[in-house]
């Protein structure tokens, strides 16, 4: 089966976004084996049988490459473009197997038939590029910090890519998705455009007066929604079974606030509605009942548990009222291609196979959809990655982001005079906010917590029964009709305060003041930044790591809380973060994906891959924070 995908007209001229061209679409040739993805409507084309065989062949090669550990990083091979026709690859593969497969001849086969990762991308200058850094940098009094800002401005030109013409002409030989405009990559092993990373990259580009580059990135993501119905995790075929935190509407408005171009809003509005539909249908939508929570008493009476994954006591209004919320739920029930070896090993360690392994793979992919891959936040019933149960959890931050998205859509509709749509999404936002504050807010520790669905795991979804279904997309039963009782999850995670960033508490309100007090008392704010959690699980989205997007959201949340203590907290955290970035830069010469929250300038560790440098969202947060501090200071003098 082949996907009949569409793409906007492609502009290969570096430095030009061709923004309005996204309204014109031209058909691509039918996509080949790399586009056989679960959950997508397909149309049968004449070479369908060949395409299926090629996909199965790619899977077989990938599994052997993983088993023989040809490359240390599982992602390396799945990013390699195919150099020859699939017919020729199949002949070589048959010959190789008839001779007897060894690590040496498998490595030679890969070298002959596959290109290097990233060889199907071109390095280009960001659209609108200028060597001169933004003028507000001259206001920064510390020479070292001013120099760092100048250097990070220059990093954008090292991270900008564009797909090669072969990606458009021979889509069946590439896992990279054909994007119409240049884009910024995070860096290192992350060679493609990513979903939620892009928000902070855009904020940094706008701080650097690179508006055309920011627009190209937004237009690429809108294009992905047009083709796939949502923004995938990243611009790779193997990421199209899941998304990432829904921040596209925030990106659109961040760009519009600078450009004031209503044509952007006109193009974006129907696609944002389409993206919203994705997050509120099928297995992603859950109906929960307020009241009836397990109110387990904690040992020390402070309303918190000392470990993640247990319930906390909380009082709620609206008992027995039913709210529709959302959760992360990938459509993938097999090992992730980009982490195939790791997922197979995890299932073996957990001692599961068949349906139970499929459920674990789905929960692991769903954790990747959250952006928090991986964290004790998703553990249920034990400590360790094998206890990942993401689909049993209704996240506070996801629903806060969707609340913000609903308000954004309403605001865009109002700007464009679409009153009916404005009213619809204001009502949706109001209903979601009631749910968030009714069932997720804990007055015991002044924050919003995730929810645990109380039904047994097997009733929440059904995995395909056969391995072939994993590959070709049997649908998963919907949970939309069920109503779940829930438990309020405990645990101190930075995500507990993301709803403050999304406007779930009115500025200056008692709720906002309580949330700021909770953040101050949480223990998350440290000399090196903001801890992701208080738990040392060994996973990268836990202590001691501090992640740029969480730091930035919490700083902005504290500023916008309308609480005096919030402003002071934001300034303290921003100064700590800028200092930590400076220390690390001076020691290593790099901007890093994550940092050590306890140690200023310390590098983040843990997780299933080595620490990465570059780095897209780190650069964006640094420049946004410097702009916030020094552009504002210039206006006030």
From TrEMBL:
GO MF term set: alpha,alpha-trehalase activity
Keywords: Glycosidase, Hydrolase
Region (Disordered): 289-317
Entry's family note: Belongs to the glycosyl hydrolase 37 family.
Protein name listed in UniProt: Trehalase
Cited Pfam families: Trehalase
Record-linked InterPro entries: 6-hairpin_glycosidase_sf, 6hp_glycosidase-like_sf, Glyco_hydro_37, Glyco_hydro_37_CS
Catalyzed reactions per annotation: alpha,alpha-trehalose + H2O = alpha-D-glucose + beta-D-glucose
Basic and acidic residues: bias regions: 304-317
Entry EC no(s): 3.2.1.28
Top-level EC class: hydrolase
Organism: Volvox reticuliferus
Any one of the GO BP annotations: trehalose catabolic process
Record has Metal-binding as a keyword: no
Entry-linked PANTHER family: TREHALASE
């Amino acid at each position: 089966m082949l996907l009949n995908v569409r793409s906007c007209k492609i502009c290969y001229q570096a430095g030009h976004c061709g923004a309005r061209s996204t309204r014109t679409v031209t058909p691509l040739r039918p996509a080949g084996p790399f586009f056989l993805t679960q959950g997508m409507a397909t149309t049968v084309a004449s070479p369908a049988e060949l395409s299926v065989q090629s996909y199965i062949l790619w899977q077989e090669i990938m599994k052997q490459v993983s088993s023989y550990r040809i490359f240390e990083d599982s992602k390396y091979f799945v990013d390699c473009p195919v150099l020859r026709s699939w017919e020729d690859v199949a002949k070589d593969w048959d010959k190789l197997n008839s001779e007897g497969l060894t690590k040496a001849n498998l490595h030679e086969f890969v070298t002959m038939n596959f290109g290097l990762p990233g060889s199907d991308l071109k390095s280009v200058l960001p659209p609108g590029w200028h060597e001169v850094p933004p003028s507000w940098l001259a206001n920064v009094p510390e020479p070292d910090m001013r120099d760092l800002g100048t250097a990070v401005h220059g990093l954008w030109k090292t991270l900008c890519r564009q797909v090669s013409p072969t990606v458009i002409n021979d889509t069946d030989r590439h896992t990279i998705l054909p994007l119409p405009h240049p884009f910024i990559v995070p860096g290192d092993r992350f060679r493609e455009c990513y979903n939620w990373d892009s928000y902070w990259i855009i904020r940094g580009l706008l701080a650097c007066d690179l508006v055309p580059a920011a627009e190209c990135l937004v237009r690429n993501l809108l294009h992905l929604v047009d083709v796939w119905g949502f923004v995938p995790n990243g611009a790779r075929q193997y990421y199209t079974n899941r998304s990432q935190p829904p921040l596209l509407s925030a990106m659109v408005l961040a760009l519009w606030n600078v450009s004031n171009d209503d044509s952007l809003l006109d193009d974006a509005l129907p696609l944002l509605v389409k993206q919203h539909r994705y997050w509120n249908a099928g297995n992603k939508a859950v109906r929960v009942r307020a009241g009836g929570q397990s109110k387990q008493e904690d040992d020390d009476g402070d309303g918190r548990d000392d470990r993640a994954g247990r319930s906390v006591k909380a009082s709620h209004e609206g008992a027995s009222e039913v709210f529709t919320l959302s959760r992360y739920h990938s459509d993938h029930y097999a090992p992730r291609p980009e982490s195939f070896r790791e997922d197979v090993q995890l299932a073996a360690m957990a001692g599961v196979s068949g349906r139970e392994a499929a459920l674990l793979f789905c929960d692991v992919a769903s954790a990747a959809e959250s952006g928090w891959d991986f964290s004790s936040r998703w553990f249920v019933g034990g400590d360790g990655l094998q206890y990942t149960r993401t689909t049993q959890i209704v996240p506070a931050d996801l629903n806060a982001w969707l609340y913000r998205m609903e308000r954004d859509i309403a605001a865009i509709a109002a700007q464009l005079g679409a009153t009916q749509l404005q009213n619809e999404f204001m009502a949706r936002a109001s209903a979601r906010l009631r749910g968030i504050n009714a069932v997720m807010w804990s007055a015991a520790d002044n924050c919003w917590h995730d929810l645990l669905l109380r039904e047994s795991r097997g009733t929440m979804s059904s995995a395909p029964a056969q391995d072939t279904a994993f590959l070709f997309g049997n649908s998963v039963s919907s949970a939309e009709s069920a109503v779940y009782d829930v438990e309020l999850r405990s645990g101190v995670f930075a995500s507990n305060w993301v709803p403050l960033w999304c406007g779930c508490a009115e500025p200056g309100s008692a709720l906002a003041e309580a949330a700021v007090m909770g953040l101050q008392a949480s223990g998350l704010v440290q000399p090196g930044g903001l801890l992701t959690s208080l738990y040392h699980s060994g996973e990268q989205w836990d202590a001691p790591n501090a992640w740029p997007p969480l730091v930035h959201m919490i700083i902005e949340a504290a500023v916008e809380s309308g609480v005096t203590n919030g402003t002071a907290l934001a300034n303290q955290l921003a100064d700590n973060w800028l200092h930590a970035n400076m220390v690390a830069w001076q020691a290593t010469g790099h901007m890093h994906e994550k940092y050590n929250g306890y140690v200023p300038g310390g590098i983040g560790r843990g997780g299933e891959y080595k620490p990465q440098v570059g780095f897209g969202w780190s650069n964006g947060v640094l420049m946004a924070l410097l702009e916030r501090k020094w552009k504002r200071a210039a206006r006030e003098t």
